[in-house]
Amino acid sequence: MKEKLEQIKKKAVREIQNSDGLTKLNDVRVAFLGKKGELTAVLKGMKDVLPEERPVVGQLVNETRESIERLIEETKARLEAAERELKLQQEVIDVTLPARKNRVGHRHPNTIALEEVERIFVGMGYEVVEGPEVEYDYYNFEALNIPANHPAKDEQDTFYINDKIVLRTQTSPVQVREMEKGKLPIRMIAPGRVFRSDEVDATHSPSFHQIEGLVVDKHITFADLKGTLAEFARQLFGEGTKVKFRPHHFPFTEPSAEVDVTCFKCGGKGCRFCKGSGWIEILGCGMVHPRVLKMSGIDPEEYSGFAFGVGLERIALLKYEIDDMRLLYENDDRFLQQF
Predict the structure, then answer these.
(1) In sequence order, which residues have a C-beta less than 8 Å from that of residue 181 and are 6 or more positions away?
(2) Do 276 and 224 fall within a single domain?
(3) Which residues pair with 6 in a beta bridge?
(4) Which of 13, 26, 285, 317 lies 20 to 30 Å from 250 when distance is taken between CA atoms?
């Protein structure tokens, strides 16, 4: 029995020393110390040993087990240290390198321009009001003094759902809905998406955004309109900005005007940006037509008002000197990262 235990020990030592990894070492442990291992088989054979010899044989078996276990643990510690050292060499991290930056999204040029316009008018005491993009023909046209035979209602210009429902061509219907509520005075702007049957090019799109404003109160005059828009232009384009009003026609305002501002690139001297004129057109405006007030339930003899409308994309194009409107919608990351 003693010789057999010596043979098992020598065999175990040899195989432990030849183990080149933790997996192989575990296989050796199972082969000698597992439930079906060689040393365990010796213990199971203790019943065949003479009673007076069992204590001596039992001690020899335990000594052999302890010797094998100690050698396995020492070898395991050495192999783990070697693996850890190899891993540290292969997975070395240079902590002096700059960290990888997380790319965080930011606001679109349209959003930046809209927030700037809203800030200006809210500072003047206006409220921001929104309305439906799918609108009744009545609110989009008739209530704005645009009769059934008006060219603007041609299907070549307007997306019709049916004969009574359209995709709104302007945000003016929001103004009509507010006037119908009868809560006067009104000081509001109505930003939102609008739709027109236009071909896509550098300055046109079938879907774009407008910001329209409305003031209705007693004793409102064209002077109030001019002062409001002059202050808006100064805050948006700079303190030295001047405005110029040119006569125009809109069905829902009378009198009406187009508004130009001095070129913020050359200060009105004339340059490539303003095509040498020194002026840039930015919006349309006018005094609310008495018939529009009357159709909305407001007495034009007691109340008056003014309205204006500006294209959000036009402000973004001018403010950031973008020469092609399509860039705003193509989602080109190289373009958007500039803002």
Answers:
(1) none
(2) yes
(3) none
(4) 317
d(CA 339, CA 330): 15
Residue 260 reports pLDDT greater than 70: yes
Residues 116 and 65 placed together within one structural domain of the fold: no
The amino acid sitting at 141 is F
User: DSSP letters along 102-141, please?
Assistant: P------HHHHHHHHHHHHHHHTT-EE----SEEEHHHHT
Rounded to two decimals, what is the model's pTM?
A: 0.66
Count of domains in the chain?
2
**Tens of pLDDT, residues 324-338:** 888 888 888 888 888
Q: Is residue 99 part of a domain?
A: no
Summarised one tens digit per residue, pLDDT across range 261-317 is 998 778 778 887 778 888 989 999 999 999 999 999 999 999 999 999 999 998 888
pLDDT score recorded for residue 177: 95
Burial class (CB in 10 A: 0-12, 13-18, 19+), 81: exposed
| CATH at residue 320 | 3.30.930.10
Last residue in a domain, options 34, 58, 90: 90
